[in-house]
Each structure stands twice: as C-alpha cells, then as structure tokens.
Design goal:
By secondary structure, the chain is α/β, with parallel strands linked by helices. The protein has 19 helices and 15 strands. It has 2 domains: 261 residues, 3-Layer(aba) Sandwich (Rossmann fold), CATH 3.40.50; 175 residues, Rossmann fold (3-Layer(aba) Sandwich). The chain binds uridine-5'-diphosphate-xylopyranose.
Length: 470
C-alpha cells in the first residue's frame, strides 16, 4: 500500500508529496444504487490518495468484492425482514427504517466494527464514512470511539431542505395539501410545496422520521461531504455551513468525475452494446431516457412514453429497467413500435450511464432527476427533460429548471403528444438550444472545480488531511 500522499494545502500545483504511514477509512453505503455509486466513487478517490479502504456492506443488495480488488469487504447482518427485502428496490423508506431498527436491536454492527478496528494486519481505521441514513451504524461507531463522517449523496439544496423540515411543519407547508402544491416556500426560494422531499409510498410521518434521523446523523458526525460543487450551489452551501456547527462541510463533487472507476458498483449488468450503437449516430442527435434504479411507470404511462419517443422523430436510447413497469412482467413494447423506430431507437435494460452521457452522440437526457443522474448530466453539459417521481427528485428538477436553466419539467399526465412536443422543443427548439448553451457553461465550471486548483480538488485535499488528523 502506497503511503498516503499528504497534500500541503495552499501550495497547489507544485505539491511535494510527503509520506506517512498509511491509514485506513471504513465506508458504509446505504444499499441502494443511488447511494452506493457516490460512496464507492468517494472510496476510490480516497484510495487514490493512498488511504486503505474497507467497505462495510449489508447482505441486502450486497456489493461484489471482485469489482474492487483493492478494497477489503466486510459483510454486516442488516436484519432486513425477508418480505421487506424481497422486492429488491422495494420501498426504500421502509427498508431504511427496518434496517436501522434491526441493527439497533442487535450487536452485529458493534461486533463487526470492533473486529475491523482490532485487525492489526491492516492500518488503523481513522474514521467511518457512512450514509446519512445509517444512524444505527453511527451509534455503534460512537460506542467504539470511532469518528464518523457523513457522505450526503444528494445536493446541498436537499440537505438544506432537510434542515428546514421542522420549519416546513411550523409554517404549515407540511403535511402537504393538494391545494397548496404550487405555493411558494418563501423562506426557501425557489421551492414550492410540491418540490419538498416526499414519498409516494409512505405517510408523511415516516418521511419526517427518516429526515430527522439524517439530520441527527449529520449533526453527530465529525463532518459532512456533499456530492456537489461550490460554483453550482454556493448559496445553499453557505447557508448549510452557517446552520451546521461542524468542523468540515465540504463540496467535493462531482465524485464520479474524480473517481477512476465508473462501472464498479452497478447492481445490474450494464449493456455496453449501446455504446457501439451510439457510435453510429450523429453528434448530439440522441435523447437518452432513464428513470434511475427506483422510479416506476404504470403500463399506460409506459405506452405513452414509447409512442411519444417514436412520434418525436428523434433518435433515442431508452432504459427500461426490469421491474420498472408496474403490473407488467417483462418488457412488452407495443405492436409496431420496433418498425416505427427502426435504426433510430434502442431500448436496453440498464446502461453504462456515465459513459452514455459522455458520448458525443447524446444531445439531451430525459431523466427522473435522481441526484446522481442530474449531476452526471450537468457534468457532461447535457440539457434535461425533467420528470421527477418523488423523494429529492422534485427539488432537483426545480433547481435544474429555475436556478440553473438547463432543463424543463414535463408536468402532469404522461401523454404521447405532450412528450413528442417536449422532445422536439429540447432537441431542436430555440429554448432547447439556450438550455444547451447554459449546460455547456456549467460543464466548464465542473472542469474548473476538478483542476488541481479547483474547489473540489482542494476539498479532497482538505478531506485527506482531516482524516489523517483524526
Ligand atoms: C436514488 C433516489 O431515487 C434519488 O432521488 C436520490 O437522489 C439518490 O438515490 P436513483 O433513483 O437510483 O437514486 O437515481 P440516481 O441518483 O440518478 O442514481 C442512479 C445511478 O445509477 C446513477 O449513478 C446512474 O449513473 C446509474 N445508472 C442509472 C446506470 O448505471 N445505468 C442506468 O441505466 C441508469
């Protein structure tokens, strides 16, 4: 293991690496794709700076150690009831609550952490990086005297919204009322009530509990790293730093652009045949369509999307994830669809998304606005059609449209004619061209923040030095 290269902050550029005995970080991602990816990207970045990495993971959505040979892997009993776990991507909020409850009721986490910490064959752990949804794991770490850092896998505005949740209730914005959905949250522009974090599958009390626990975990940590960058969310970061009395609040993203591994943590097999197909398409001619690892469509919505894509006349690459269509076993595209889209449309089950968005043939992204997808699109200068489903997606979509101006929301019922017009607007309309320009500008800001003198690169320098000081 290379000794850690301790960066001397301030003299960026002419950095003279100093060697020190290697230290180790433990990472514990929440076992869902949108949380696994940023945590493994962060682990890869820290490993690249000379830190040894041990990945703690649940049996549920277990990671494949073979994909990260440089890391140690330790499995932790998660106690998720079989029926709750059965649907895999299931109801994320129920699974988070069930997992934390089971972990808090057992000594499994304490035992695993204690044995990892006692392992003298490996460098002493400096800290445990955990997902903000793992309060039970943080409690075990505190009992063992192990410092914790939190990786926030959503944007800074999302964490700001979590901090404001008590105010949302005090002011009557929540519980959300259908009649108030478009009411502005004047204390937190540009949010409206409809943009506040919510779940379609759970009552608002469960959501309130989950968010209160995330805030408790963040406030109980030795610092928080957010997968965003300073230029994108300066105002939100400033407010969070003011509200959180923590020694470290770092914007160290886009993590996937700092990480060397892009495919190392996909729970589904990524279909690389689409890259060869993209190679045969003209530059910026393809609309990439994907709704992440959790969102779903009704079978009727599925048909409307299919015909909206076909009738738009534009090229498209559409991810139809297994299980994405409620009430449909398997993927049954409508009769005549294949003929209608021959040569210009391709449907796959799971994409190498980061490579797809970086491909010169892709000109736009129809997304559900999960934060990773949103940040990956921004990183490649790709404008978006936003179709948020729930959770933080509505807030992400609001910022894409209102603050960053690199997309627009497709609201209301999914209907083929509306879809067709939205695609044409983004792919070949004036408004779409203006969004593309702004997306290109944001891409340049991403490039800048990743340079050795850039804000995210310096944030990682600070993080490594901070970890070494623990
Ligand atoms: C979940 C929540 O839904 C989201 O709101 C939250 O911000 C993060 O956790 P998910 O819905 O899976 O995430 O969406 P997203 O955040 O976009 O993460 C999906 C990840 O899977 C991305 O990193 C994307 O690159 C990857 N992906 C997606 C693929 O590798 N292939 C695909 O076909 C689609």
């Amino acid at each position: 293991m290379a000794a850690v290269q301790e960066a001397r902050t301030g003299d960026v550029g002419s950095r003279v690496p100093q060697t020190r005995p290697a230290r180790r970080v433990l990472v514990f991602p929440l076992p869902f794709q949108g949380h696994i990816n940023p945590m493994m990207q962060l682990a890869d970045v820290l490993h690249g700076r000379g830190l040894a990495v041990t990945v703690l993971h649940t049996h549920f959505n277990a990671l494949d150690p073979a994909l990260h040979p440089a890391f140690d892997f330790v499995s932790v009993a998660d106690g998720i009831p079989a029926d709750v776990a059965a649907s895999k991507s299931g109801n994320i909020i129920d699974i988070i609550l069930a997992m934390n409850e089971a972990m808090e009721a057992s000594t499994a986490v304490d035992e695993v952490l204690a044995s990892v910490m006692a392992d003298e064959a490996r460098p002493r752990p400096a800290c445990l990086f955990l997902d903000g949804n793992l309060l039970a794991v943080q409690k075990a770490a505190v009992r063992l005297g192990l410092p914790t850092l939190v990786l926030r896998t959503g944007c800074a505005a999302c964490l700001g919204g979590f901090l404001a949740f008590p105010m949302f209730y005090q002011k009557g914005y929540l519980p959300r009322q259908v009649s108030q959905l478009y009411m502005p949250v004047k204390e937190l522009p540009p949010l409206r009530v409809r943009d506040i974090f919510f779940s379609v599958d759970n009552n608002h009390e469960k959501v309130r509990t989950i968010i209160a626990r995330i805030i408790e975990t963040v406030k109980g940590s030795s610092g928080v790293v957010i997968n965003t960058f300073e230029a994108l969310e300066a105002k939100e970061l400033e407010r969070i730093r003011r509200e959180l009395d923590l020694p470290l609040v770092l914007a160290a993203g886009p993590l996937h652009k700092l990480s060397s591994t892009t495919t190392g943590s996909s729970l589904l097999d990524q279909d690389y045949s689409c890259i060869k197909w993209l190679d045969s398409q003209p530059a910026r001619s393809v609309l990439y369509v994907s709704f992440g690892s959790l969102a779903s469509l009704s079978s009727n919505e599925f048909l409307e999307v299919a015909w909206g894509l076909a009738n738009s006349g534009h090229n498209f690459l559409w991810v139809v994830r297994p299980g994405m269509i409620r009430g449909m076993n398997g993927i049954h595209l409508p009769n005549g669809f294949d003929v209608a889209v021959e040569g210009r449309g391709k449907v796959i089950q799971w994409a190498p998304q980061q490579e797809v968005l970086a491909h010169q043939a892709v000109g736009a992204f129809w997304t559900h606005n999960g934060w990773n997808s949103t940040l990956e699109s921004i990183s490649e200068g790709i404008p978006m059609i936003c179709r948020p489903h729930s959770l933080d997606q509505t807030m992400n979509a609001r910022y894409v449209a209102e603050i960053w101006g690199v997309g627009f929301e497709l609201e209301g019922e999914l209907e083929r004619r509306k879809i067709e017009l939205a695609i044409r607007n983004l792919m070949s309309g004036k408004e779409g061209a203006e969004m593309r320009e702004r997306a290109e500008d944001l891409k340049m800001k991403v490039v800048e923040c990743l340079e050795s003198s850039g804000s995210s690169h310096i944030a990682i320098d600070k993080l490594v030095n901070y970890i070494l000081s623990l």
